[in-house]
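Q: How would the C-alpha cells look for this protein?
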Amino acid sequence: MKVSVVVCTYPTDRYECFHECVESVLEQTYEDLEVVLVIDGNEEVYEWTVDDFGDVPNLRIHCNDENRGISYSRTKGAELADGEIVAMIDDDATAEPDWIETLVGTYESTDALAVGGDVRPDWQVEKPDFFPDEFYWLVGCVEPGFAEDGEEVRNTYGSNISYRRDVFLNVGGYDPNTGRKGEKHLQAHEAPVGIRMLEEYGRGMVFIEDAVVHHKLFDYRGDYRWLVSRSFWQGYSKRVMDLLYPNAPDDKSAYLKQLMTQYVPKRIAELVRSPSMPKVKQLVTIFVFTAVVGLGYLYAMVTPDVVEKANA
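A: Here is the predicted structure in C-alpha cell form.
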C-alpha cells in the first residue's frame, strides 16, 4: 500500500520548521512512501526546497503559480500523488517515526476510508498558565475527550489526517475558499471533506491515538488577544459551515456542551479542593473563549450574505 505524504508551505520565515517537518517524514519507518511538497507560490522557498530536497528519491516538488491557499495546495498535492493513501501534516509539525506505519495498519486491518491521529502540543515557549487544555482545539491540537481510540469521527485535525486518495478526490478535496490563504483564514477546512464523505459514503474518519505528530506552538499562540480573536473567528466559521451544511453533525457544539456540563463542574470542584491562581485563570478563560466563540457565531448570523463574504 503506497502512501503519499503531502506537505505544503508558503512563508519564508517558516522554512526552518518546514525543513524539520520534511525530515521527520523522510525518517518514517514505513518504506512504500512518496513525499509531495507543494510550495504555495513563493519562488524563493521553492528554490531553497529544490536545493535541499531536489535529489531525494521518491520526492517531488511543485510550486503554485501564485499564492492559492492551504486548501488548494493540499488538494493539488493529492492530485499529483501516486499513493493509494494520501496523508497530510502541517509545515510546523513533526511526525513520530512510526506515524505512517500506524496509519497504514488501520487501513490494512479495516475498511476505513480515512484515518487521523493525535496532534500533541509542542510549545516553543512556556505554556501560558491561563491556557486550559480543553481549548487545545483552538490551536490545532487534540483536546481532552476528543475521541476514543478507534472511534469514528467526522474529521481529525489537519496536521494529522489521511484519506484513501480516490475517496478524497471523489468528494472534491478541500474547498479552496476555506483554510489559510495569505491573511485570510476561514477555519475548519477539514470539516467539509468529512461532511461530504458522510453524505457520499455514510462513513467518517477513524481516530488512532498512537499515530502521533507534534504541532509547534509559538509565542503568538499563547497571546491572550490572539486566542480571543481566534475564538471569534472559530464561531464565525462555524456559522458559515452551518449554512453550507445544515444537516451535518455538530461536533464542536457537542463538545462545548460537554465542556460546560462535565469539564467545568469538575474544574470547579478541583478549585474548591485545592485553590490556585492558574486554576482560577483557566476557569475564567474557558468562559471567555466560549463566550467569544458564541459572539463570532452571532456576528455571522446578523452579517448579510455571510457565505459570499467568506468566499470573497
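The chain has a mean pLDDT of 91.

The two ends are 40 Å apart (CA to CA).

Upvote if useful.
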